[in-house]
Every structure is written in structure tokens, then in C-alpha cells.
Design brief:
This protein is mainly alpha-helical. Helix content is about 60%, strand content about 5%. Helix 2 runs antiparallel to helix 5, helix 2 runs parallel beside helix 7 and helix 3 packs antiparallel against helix 7. It is globular and about 45 Å long. It starts with a helix and ends in a 6-residue tail after the last helix. Pfam families: DinB_2.
Length: about 170
């Protein structure tokens, strides 16, 4: 198994059921549930020096989902270009998430997720099987859709284990 396949599988393994379209909604509800109950002050918390704040992490979810949306769209439409990778840390460094309100970041997350749901749910199932290349690796549009979910669950686990426990929630 290649490093890329291990990376993909790590996220796919996070999806709790085979019904990934339902899991798209459930992961959104869980994320909104957590972030809706944070105070503005709590949203500025990072569990260790050099780690993202909860605000930065939320914007990271939106940023990554947008990149994945584009890949899904491109591959589903038959785009044969090798799409570039992205550096999540560079994106976070340039996000200015700390200058935004938690409410605006949560609104953005909800809109990005709604856009993902519409994109995925209205796509012809055969188009989701299309393969494209991103960051030098071949992958199907459907697998990228599943990565949105697995990536979200991955970060929900980190939030619960490393952030909320230190904020006294768990």
C-alpha cells in the first residue's frame, strides 16, 4: 500500500457507517453542535503551542472541503489535468481566522457543507466513479466525497480528545 493509499484509508476508516451520504449530514450536525456551544474565548483555545486554535481548525475544515469540492467537480466532469495539492498549514497561516467571529466561521462552515451536499447529492452516480489526478495521485470523485466526511470525523475526534477535555467539557 502506498503512502497516498494509507493517507486516504486513514480518513475513510473514520466514517462510522457505509451510508456515507447520511454521515455527511451527521458529521456536520456534530461539528455545529460543538462549535455552537463554544464561547468566543473558548474558540481561541489551542491545546498546545504551535497547534491550531478551534477557530483555525473550523476554517481548516471549510478550506479543505472547498478544495475537495473542486476536485469532485473537476473529476466528475472529466477533467484530466493534474490538480495541485495544497499546504494546509500555509492556508491556516494566511486564514486570519482569529480576526473573525466564531459565528461567521460557523456560518461559513454551514454554507460550504450545504454546497457539498448539493454537489454530491445531485451528481450522476456514474460521474462519481470518474478518476482524476490530484497532487500526483489518482483518485475517484466518490472517494474524495468520502474524504470530506472522514476528514471531518478525524478532526471531531481531535477536538474531543485534545481540545474539549482541556476546556473541561469531557
Amino acid at each position: 500500500m502506498t503512502d497516498f493509499q494509507k493517507y486516504v484509508q486513514r480518513y475513510l476508516d473514520q466514517i462510522p457507517s457505509e451510508d456515507w451520504l447520511t454521515e455527511l449530514k451527521i458529521s456536520e450536525e456534530k461539528t455545529i453542535g460543538i462549535y455552537s456551544n463554544l464561547t468566543e474565548e473558548q474558540s481561541k483555545f489551542a491545546y498546545a503551542e504551535g497547534k491550531w486554535t478551534l477557530k483555525e481548525l473550523l476554517l481548516h475544515l471549510s478550506d479543505t472541503e472547498r478544495v475537495f469540492q473542486y476536485r469532485i467537480l473537476a473529476f466528475a466532469r472529466g477533467d484530466k489535468n493534474n490538480l495541485p495539492g495544497f499546504d494546509e498549514n500555509e492556508y491556516a497561516d494566511q486564514s486570519f481566522a482569529s480576526e473573525r467571529s466564531l459565528e461567521s466561521l460557523l456560518d461559513e462552515y454551514k454554507l460550504v457543507r450545504k454546497s457539498s451536499q448539493i454537489l454530491i447529492e445531485t451528481m450522476n452516480p456514474s460521474a462519481l466513479k470518474n478518476i482524476g489526478t490530484a497532487n500526483g495521485n489518482e483518485i475517484s470523485a466518490e472517494t474524495i466525497a468520502k474524504l470530506i466526511i472522514g476528514h471531518n470525523y478525524h478532526h471531531l475526534n481531535i477536538i474531543e480528545e485534545r481540545y474539549l477535555s482541556k476546556l473541561g467539557w469531557m
